[in-house]
């Protein structure tokens, strides 16, 4: 989904832009939001800001609209896992072998293998 912000929307604070994006996505994907529990992971303090007693009129309208869906807000604590996912996603599909390309420098990836029952961790050295 994409939407270009126009006019005054470009001058909204980061939290307002995040709330606007959430409202637009909820509107476009209304059947999914009604059928499933949606949890929003963000580094913005949305829950704290959206449920303050003093909000601007537009934010209050968005909060009322979003309250229909029972959306949970959860703080995104770390991006470490996402870094590893992005790294793997960007790897070429066919891996070349160093012997196939003599004279080229190759990077070696060492992973520390940290893993727990409740969460996993990653340590990378290139």
TrEMBL record:
What's the superkingdom here?
Eukaryota
Annotated ranges, domain Reverse transcriptase RNase H-like: 1-69
Alphabetical keyword list: Endonuclease, Hydrolase, Nuclease, Nucleotidyltransferase, RNA-directed DNA polymerase, Transferase
Please provide, alphabetically and separated by semicolons, the GO molecular function terms listed in this UniProt record: endonuclease activity; hydrolase activity; RNA-directed DNA polymerase activity
The protein, known as: Reverse transcriptase RNase H-like domain-containing protein
């Amino acid at each position: 989904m994409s939407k270009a912000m126009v006019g005054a929307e470009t001058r909204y604070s980061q939290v307002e832009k995040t709330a606007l994006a959430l409202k637009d996505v909820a509107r476009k994907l209304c059947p999914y939001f009604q059928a499933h529990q949606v949890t929003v992971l963000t580094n913005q303090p949305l829950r704290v800001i959206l449920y303050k007693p003093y909000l601007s009129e537009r934010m209050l309208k968005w909060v009322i609209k979003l309250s229909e869906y029972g959306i949970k807000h959860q703080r995104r604590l770390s991006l470490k896992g996402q870094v590893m996912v992005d790294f793997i996603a960007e790897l070429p599909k066919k891996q070349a072998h160093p012997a196939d390309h003599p004279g080229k420098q190759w990077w070696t990836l060492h992973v520390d293998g940290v893993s727990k029952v409740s969460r996993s961790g990653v340590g990378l050295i290139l």
